[in-house]
Amino acid sequence: MNENELEARLRATLRERASSVAERPDAWNGYSERSPIASTPHPTAGRRLVWLGVAAAAALIVFVVLQVTSSPSVKVTAVAPETTDTGVSAAPSTSVGSTTIPAPTTVPSPVPGPVGLPVPALFTSSSVTFVSLHTGWVLGTAPCGLTHCMELLRTRDGGQTWVALPQPPMPVADSSNVQQRHVRFANLNDGWIYGPDLWVTHDGGATWNRAPGEGLSPDTPVTALETDGEVVYAVVEPSTVITSPVDHDDWRAAPVSIPIGAGPVPFAQLVVQGAGGWIIENNRTVVGGARLEDGKWTEWQPPCIDKAGPAVLTASTPTDVVVVCHEGVWGNGPPTENVLVSSDGGTTFHEIPAPLTGDWQVDGVASAGSDTIVVAGVANGSRVLEATFDGGDSWTALHSEPAGGSWTDIGFTGPTQGIAIAHLEDGGELLMTTDGGHTWTPADFYAGR
Amino acid sequence: MLGVTVMMATMGVVEKGSSPAREPTSFESFYRTNHIAMVRLAYLLTGSRVIAEDLVQDSFLRVQPRWGALEVPAAYLRRTVTNASYSYLRRRRREEAFVADRPVAAAAPELDETWAALARLTPRRRAVLVLRFYLDLSEAEIAATLGCRPGTVKSLTSRGLADLREVMEP
Fold first, then answer.
1. Considering only CB atoms, which chain B residues are within 8 Å of A122?
2. Which residue on chain A is closest to B77 by alpha carbon?
3. B155 touches chain A (CB under 8 A)
4. pLDDT averaged over consecutive 10-residue blocks of chain A (449 residues)?
5. How far is B133 from chain A (nearest CA, A)?
6. B133 neighbourhood in chain A, CB within 8 Å
7. CB of B97 within 8 A of CB of B123?
8. Would you say A239 and A289 are in contact if contact means Cβ atoms under 8 Å apart?
9. If residue B38 lies in a helix (H) or strand (E), which one and from where to where?
10. pTM to 2 decimal places
């Protein structure tokens, strides 16, 4: 067979195969039901389309009204359930699930949320949140055409399988911008993407809108956000706490003042655990804090405010708090990591028996009860996870990569399930544990495909 | 240098044999005009109708938010579908051997043989052959679609045809 014959046969094969695929008559209806975005005319269409659109919209409204009034079974939402969810929700995981032990409550079936699509190729993670042992979301990016787009994935089986939700509309400016964006959900419907701006969804991620409200503007970046399931709390720099009910947008500034410090970049860490909440404001060093008690934020003095370095914190219950102080970074002595624990909600702290050793820079900490503390950071040039499972008597190396990088969103979503995002040079990776933090493995977003 | 926008503007998305149409004035019209062509393209690239439907739906969802701002949305859509199919095949090949749909009934034996041989090519070579011999794209257009140089397209085409011949004439 010469080249011309081969090419002719290939053309015939491709034509024959292509012609075997027929258009489905309901293709557009199926698509439009799943698409969260209303059809918009192309800008080259001209002004006359506005009038055509008005006429069509009016006709559509009349049609829908007639349908609704004449048929009780008319479908008015574009929501379809997936079969993998248990239909059980739980108290939200706060601080990316800093050890919220789920207290299951039944929610109506079918489970809300947009229909999932295949996870795009080359997805990289930037943030993760879970609202139960089963249901969680990962925010990240993936190549799309000539650029990268924001992507939001969802699991309803504890991370075994993932689907892509409609792309969140916020732009991907550059890699540094990506790392600033985080995702949190309070339940299956209400969620937020923040950093530096704030976006909100009330339909499970099908649509996102800029959150309007007091204290929010393009010049005031949101650096932290968490929720207790009823109320969502956010820190807007410089050092303002704003709150809103989770199911609608009514943002108001809390009457608490947090010192901003004299450093170049104020940055807050916010942890909410049940009825308890804590904010540490870092600006090179710990410069102040606030605590949530009886539903109100009040000023709070974090434990390492005079230690010449920043700190990270977590909480496993409303009273059990862990703070890791990176002491001496901006002082004269060599830097050290000091792990402090509190069992009275952050009023008093004491050091654990065994210190972290090595040249550490701790990015995050998670705790699953009083005995288990996992720290994530860079030690001696490697990106590492280390843990104590005996209340601080000894430390165990769990994960070590020679490359540097950083960690965000480390937390436990239950006694044995935990999550963390490892940021690499070429994108982030979601690690999960299901054995209480002893082993951490990368999530496989393409499993089951 | 030929800019990407210019390059994409030269790429029609309508199937071979159709005349280039004006850009549709609503997304529904755009969808209806291009949907089946894209499903067929994705099917030829992946070998699976189910996957093709999924990938095309995903691609329309990706294009829709920026559809109004695109100069030539059909070309952008085709590029999105091609890349999604290519990425899917690469991922699939890493996980398991490629398994195509069952042969379509009534196909001539030699066409079945060619189809089976096509399924054994690497995703990149398969993509180049489909774009070249189904959509009749030029080397420059294929290069713009796949994000590689025209010289690479020429090489992949040559190797792809050689692979086909080797499989069909061992």
1. 87
2. A145
3. no
4. 87 88 79 58 38 42 39 27 32 36 33 74 92 91 84 92 92 57 92 91 91 67 90 87 91 84 76 92 88 91 87 92 88 83 94 88 90 91 91 91 85 92 85 94 85
5. 5
6. 7, 10-11, 14
7. no
8. no
9. helix B27-46
10. 0.58
